[in-house]
Amino acid sequence: MASLEPRAPGSLSVLLSPTSTLQQLCLVSLATARQHVGGAVSPDSAAIAGLPTRLKAKLLRLLTSRGLLCDDDVRGLVFSELATFDARDCPGVSDDALVQLAEAGCRLQTLSLRSTRVPQPAITSTGIARLVRGSAGATLLRLDLTRCTSVGNSAMRAVAEHCPNLAHLNLLACPNISDDALEAVSHLAQLQCVNVTRTTVTDRGVEALAMGACASRLSELHVAHCRGVTDDAVVLIIDSCPRLRNLLFHGCPLVTETSRLRLGAMASGAKHLTWTVY
After folding, report:
1. How far apart are the two ends of the chain, measured CA to CA in Å?
2. Which 3 state secondary structure label does DSSP give 229?
């Protein structure tokens, strides 16, 4: 499941060049003030809200790329045409930002709230459910909640109900995600890529994907370090998902040589396989 690496923190001045426009200088000045002073990007949120959407989008990208975005910024910067909200590694973003996105009527296609290194407890099931029940639910294609430790099965039930077009779902290191979550999203017919590495998912959840509406499209599944996954689930997912090309199940202590031997059924078309035999 491809994802962009976070940019290293540092001065925003590196984004400037001798040919930078006045517009670029102004945007970097705003973001730099946010970086050094703290708080929202501007004390005059009404002025920020009045910016053209093109400038809002640039400022939003500038703040998120440096991990500086916070809830108060979102209030002034979001707009209904916003298709991508990538707030990875932005610890100042919480459920309040998701409420702002929902109230703005954003028709998101991509939502990333991933945390690369540390847990992100400020994003909860309540916030995710609130967002997908709005305009974003019908259009959402990609959802990345890596290390959002307060997101659980109820969020995935809301996603299953309101996000019929979801294709990519990343729940890596979400400890409150279990089989109930996979049973819910298994009904999403467009689902192609699922990552539940380091969750409490067991055979029951994997089997739900293999038997669900998503089985014919599923091309990528990560269940690494899921201690309740056994050969039964691995064999079933290989046999039931004809488009499966990426399967990662290393670090699953109940998996044996049986699973490795069954990989021969997909080896010719496989792109990425990892496993550990105990």
Report:
1. 26
2. coil
